[in-house]
Specification:
The protein is of the alpha/beta class. It has 4 helices and 11 strands.
């Protein structure tokens, strides 16, 4: 609660109703779960992952509505957002998952800097589940993001910890594992 900014990968839908997509694992929590985030000082979430479509477009819409009502900044796949902290720090967020494009990364990082972002975080959903080692693709796109001007690359999807790398003035967290994973 005493930090300036916390971002999480929300690998779930927040909806009080809806029908699950036809896949092996689908994740949904009630919209009231936004209170867990706000009471834990979570200011932003990335929705760029393989579970935001678990309850179709309606589920994603409910999720975004719940986050908006709770004043939690979110960033979707291949999209960016700006968050200004209580102390006035302007943070730029860019998120993507699985299928990356060097040009999109470079364009979005530049766009965020042009919008006044003092710190840029690229949140990438990538890698191999259960693997403690980043893939060559993860390394390539992490370096691309830092070279483009990102300060931090925040990786998620493997559900386990992967290495941290200092690179060209930036920091890369290839995978931070799971903070909370129910079920």
């Amino acid at each position: 609660a005493q930090d300036d900014f916390t971002i999480i990968n929300l690998e779930s839908v927040l909806a009080d109703s809806g029908y699950a997509a036809g896949k092996l694992f689908t994740f949904r929590g009630p919209t009231a779960y936004t209170e867990i985030m706000t009471s834990s000082s979570v200011e932003a979430v990335t929705l760029a992952n393989n579970h935001t479509g678990d309850f179709h477009t309606k589920g994603l819409t409910h999720t975004k509505d719940a986050l908006n009502a709770a004043h939690v900044t979110y960033v979707e796949k291949d999209a960016s957002a700006i968050h200004v902290t209580e102390s006035g720090l302007t943070i730029g967020l860019y998120a993507d998952s699985f299928y990356f494009n060097t040009g999109d990364i470079q364009k979005n990082v530049k766009k965020l800097r042009d919008q006044g972002a003092e710190v840029i975080i690229c949140a990438f959903h990538w890698g191999t589940e259960g693997s403690y080692r980043p893939t060559a693709t993860q390394k390539n796109f992490a370096h691309t993001a830092i070279d483009a001007g990102a300060d931090i690359v925040y990786g998620h999807h493997p559900h386990v910890l992967q290495k941290i790398e200092e690179y060209n003035g930036g920091i890369i967290y290839y995978s931070l594992g799971n903070f909370i994973f129910g079920g």
